[in-house]
Structure formats: structure tokens, C-alpha cells
Amino acid sequence: MILAHGGQEAGYIFYIDNGKLFYEHNNYGQSIKFPPVSLQPGKLNIDLNYDALGKRQGSGTLSVNGKQVAAGQLGLTFGGFPYEGLDIGKDARSPVSWDLYKKYGVFKYTGAIKQVKYVPGSPAPDAKGE
Questions:
Q1: What is the pLDDT of residue 56?
Q2: Which band of pLDDT confidence, cut at 50, 70 and 90, is reported for residue 78?
Q3: Domain parsing of the chain, residue ranges
Q4: What is the CB-side half-sphere exposure of residue 35 using CA atoms within 13 A?
Q5: Distance (Å, rounded) from C-alpha 90 to C-alpha 60?
Q6: Residue ranges with strand state E in the chain
Q7: Contact 74, 32 (CB under 8 A)
Q8: Cα(79)–Cα(44) distance, rounded to whole angstroms?
Q9: pTM for the whole thing?
Q10: How does DSSP classify residue 1?
Q11: pLDDT by residue (tens digit) across 9-51?
């Protein structure tokens, strides 16, 4: 597990299994998965650009080392703050993916994670702001 944000109620995870990168989005019980991406050994820069589209919908673009590898509709990321918080290198609380938890448990990452960075994007066009 590289990163787990949220839990069984909603959230998303990035993980590597058998040399492939996986991204899974838990849209309030509906699992949305991007196709697995085969990886080459070495340093990886993994980016997910999430666009809030409005009407409680969103889309994402996944890139590895600057190359787009997957994209698609993701639904709502969170309607409020996630109860389970953010885990780096494991999914130690309520699992975002029960299937993955049944297979690996907490699923600790054994490599090095140099940085996790969040950059806020634009709010959805129909977001109520102040």
C-alpha cells in the first residue's frame, strides 16, 4: 500500500502488487478501479489529477513518471471529511478495499516513499463557497 485515504465508507488507495500499480476509488460502496499499470523498477513519480465536475461527480487522470496511464469517471471523492484519515505506506484503519484487506491485511509497503503531496484544485462549478 502506497497511500490509503478514507475507509470502508469512501476513499481511495494506491498500491503496488506483483509489479503493477493499482488505483481504486471507493465511491460510497461502489468500487471504481483503473486498469493495473505495469511498472519498471526504479524511482516512480505517481500523480492523480482529480477534477470536480459538479453534480457530485468527478474524473481522474493517473500518470506515472509524467506519462498518462489511465483516466476515467470516479464519482465523488468525499461528501465530507473521511472518518479514517490518511495512511502512508499501509491501510491500518477501516480498509478502503475489503477485498484487498482480506488478501493482505494492513498491506505495509516495503519500499521507500519520499513524498506525498496534495495540491488543491478548483472547486466544482456548483460548489457552495464563501
A1: 83
A2: low
A3: 3-104
A4: 7
A5: 22
A6: 3-7, 10-17, 20-27, 30-33, 37-38, 46-54, 57-64, 67-73, 86-88
A7: yes
A8: 30
A9: 0.89
A10: -
A11: 888 999 999 999 999 999 888 899 999 999 998 999 999 999 9
Angle subtended at Cα 99 by Cα 94 and Cα 101, rounded to the nearest 5 degrees: 45
pLDDT at 130 over 60: no
The position carrying cell 477485498 is 99
- Grid coordinates in use for 114? 519520499
- How many residues are there in the chain? 130
E strand map for 28-93: 30-33, 37-38, 46-54, 57-64, 67-73, 86-88
Name the 3-class secondary structure at 12.
Answer: strand
28 neighbors 101 (Cβ within 8 angstroms): no
Give the C-alpha separation, 32 to 9, whole Å. 14
User: 44 is written with which cell numbers?
Assistant: 516512480
Contact between residue 78 and residue 6 where contact means Cβ atoms under 8 Å apart? yes
Identify the residue whose cell numbers are 495512511: 87
* The three cell numbers locating residue 78: 468525499
